[in-house]
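Researcher: Sequence recovery benchmark, item below. Answer with residues only.
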């Protein structure tokens, strides 16, 4: 008797296997480079909107498309894993005792979880097609996951430049598999933003010079995660109590009404102590305590100094005078960036008295 599952097209079996591995969204696109996407990248870099993210520029030639990286690639499998929140990411706005950590960083490090599932799917694909060659990626290589996700039908790049899904809103971690197999491509997803500009209006630091354009130099996620030096003073107040990333442009998107927290991968269940962390406790972290607290978290990669810098900006914005003694102690921190942020925060809290 022939196994009915084996008679299904490879594409259908692939998507079923991906679902078993925890992916809620999967689509297929051709691996050809897209000149329009490549030009958008060049324009973005030419305007300096990548800030100090030098790796974006260093490998721009490879980043412009799958076959620029790997000429043998014939298909791209784009996948999404949900991290949909079960509470309002904006609920702590203005809280003078609590800090805000982006939803994506409240659970386990997504790099590890998504890559493990991608490798399992890749092994399965090799079992089905032993002659295939493939490569797996999750946010650590010059791969443009968001436009590839759009091309594969997972969603579309919204006016905030992030991928939006009709089924999962703004809450998808993306991964990709490049393969030498010629797979049947899915239809690209059409743009569904319409006249909505909620994400643009929500940005506290005006990081969107125009719809579908992001100036990372003004983006709170960039400033609190990627940027290593002092945060520009004219942007500090806009950061509010956000200490790692920012969800504002994502959280206000109307398409989130279709996202269900029940679809979230269990690895991304928020750690209770990261949902509404106490700012005073975070200011007290030394390097060892920081590493212990954020073991297994993506937050660990920015290090104690950058993290405490962020917490000091939040303290300065809080108006909470009870934090002043801790802030004052950090004015003589060994790290000059931390000391700078502490001096700014101390002045702000003195003014608030």
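Model:
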């Amino acid at each position: 008797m022939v196994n009915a599952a084996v008679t299904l097209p490879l594409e259908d079996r692939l998507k079923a296997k991906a679902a078993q591995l925890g992916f809620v969204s999967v689509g297929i696109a051709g691996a050809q480079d897209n000149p329009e996407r490549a030009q958008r990248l060049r324009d973005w870099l030419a305007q300096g909107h990548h800030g100090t993210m030098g790796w974006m520029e260093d490998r721009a030639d490879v980043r412009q498309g799958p076959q620029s990286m790997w000429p043998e690639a014939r298909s791209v499998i784009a996948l999404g894993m949900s991290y949909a929140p079960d509470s309002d990411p904006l609920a702590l706005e203005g809280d003078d005792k609590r800090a805000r950590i982006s939803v994506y960083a409240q659970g386990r490090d997504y790099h590890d979880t998504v890559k493990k599932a991608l490798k399992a799917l890749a092994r399965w694909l090799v079992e089905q097609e032993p002659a295939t060659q493939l490569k797996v990626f999750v946010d650590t290589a010059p791969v443009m996951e968001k436009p590839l996700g759009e091309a594969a039908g997972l969603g579309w790049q919204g006016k905030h430049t992030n991928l939006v899904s009709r089924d999962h809103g703004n809450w998808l971690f993306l991964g990709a598999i490049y393969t030498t197999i010629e797979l049947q491509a899915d239809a690209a997803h059409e743009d569904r933003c319409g006249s909505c500009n909620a994400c643009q209006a929500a940005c506290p630091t005006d990081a969107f010079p125009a719809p579908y354009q992001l100036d990372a130099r003004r983006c709170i996620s960039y400033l609190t995660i990627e940027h290593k030096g002092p945060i520009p003073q004219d942007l500090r107040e806009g950061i509010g109590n956000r200490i790692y990333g920012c969800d504002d442009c994502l959280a206000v998107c109307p398409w989130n009404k279709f996202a269900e927290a029940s679809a979230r991968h269990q690895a991304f269940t928020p750690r209770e102590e990261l949902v509404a962390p106490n700012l005073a406790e975070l200011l007290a972290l030394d390097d060892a305590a920081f590493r212990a607290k954020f073991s297994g978290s993506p937050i660990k990669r920015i290090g104690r100094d950058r993290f405490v810098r962020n917490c000091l900006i939040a303290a300065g914005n809080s108006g909470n005078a009870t934090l002043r003694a801790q802030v004052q102690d950090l004015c003589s921190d060994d790290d000059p960036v931390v000391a700078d942020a502490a001096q700014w925060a101390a002045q702000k809290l003195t003014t608030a008295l």
